[in-house]
Amino acid sequence: MRNSIKTVVLWCTFAIGMGLTSGCASAPRATDGEVALKLRAMQTRAYETTDLNKAIRTAMATLQDLGFVVDNADSELGSVTATKLDKYVIKMTVTARPRGKAQLLVRANAQYNVLPVEEASFYQQFFSAYSKAMFLEAQQVDPAALGQ
């Protein structure tokens, strides 16, 4: 009889404990898909041009201005790969592809060693410089003439 009471008490304690832990809601965790979508949104911008060659040339110049060394560029494929060596190694690939009839989508994908760079500020810095260069290119302004 005493063993059965102990068993009932143990089961009740267990059930109450489980009820308390399962009743506490935790913040919903982002799925891998949601993380990937957020990262892609940080990495991608649309530009009002269809000139793939200009977009790739501008990407090369921007990467060089930011301290990268261009490893490979292919204007037919619309991609540039570059590496930055400074206390660390960052590999960055910029791709451009048509979006509709009047735009190009430009995506910058950076990796620190083998891990993706997920900081929004990193991509904001790249696209800020890239957008300025695209604007100057569209206006046919030589950045050297502006003292940059």
- Strand content bin: 25-35%
- Globally, the shape reads globular
Q: Into how many domains do the coordinates divide?
A: 1
Give the helices and strands as they follow along the chain: HHEHEEEEEH
CATH architecture: 2-Layer Sandwich
Helix coverage percent: 40-55%
CATH class: Alpha Beta
What is the CATH H-level superfamily?
Kinase associated domain 1, KA1
How many runs of DSSP E, i.e. beta strands? 6
N- to C-terminal distance:
89 Å
The secondary-structure class comes to alpha+beta
Q: Which segments are poorly predicted (pLDDT under 50) over 5 or more consecutive residues?
A: 6-27
Over the alpha carbons, how many angstroms does the gyration radius reach? Answer: 26 Å
Average pLDDT value? 81
How many helices does DSSP assign? 4
CATH topology descriptor: TATA-Binding Protein
Largest pleated sheet: 6 strands, antiparallel
Description:
The chain is α+β, with helices and mostly antiparallel strands and 148 residues long. The protein has one domain: Kinase associated domain 1, KA1 (TATA-Binding Protein, 2-Layer Sandwich). The protein is 45% helix and 28% strand. It has 4 helices and 6 strands; from the N terminus they run H-H-E-H-E-E-E-E-E-H. It has helices spanning 2-23, 32-43, 52-65, 120-138, and strands at residues 44-47, 69-74, 79-86, 88-99, 103-112, 115-116. Strands 1, 2, 3, 4, 5 and 6 form a 6-stranded antiparallel beta sheet that branches. Helix 3 crosses helix 4 (120-138). It starts with a helix and ends in a 10-residue tail after the last helix.
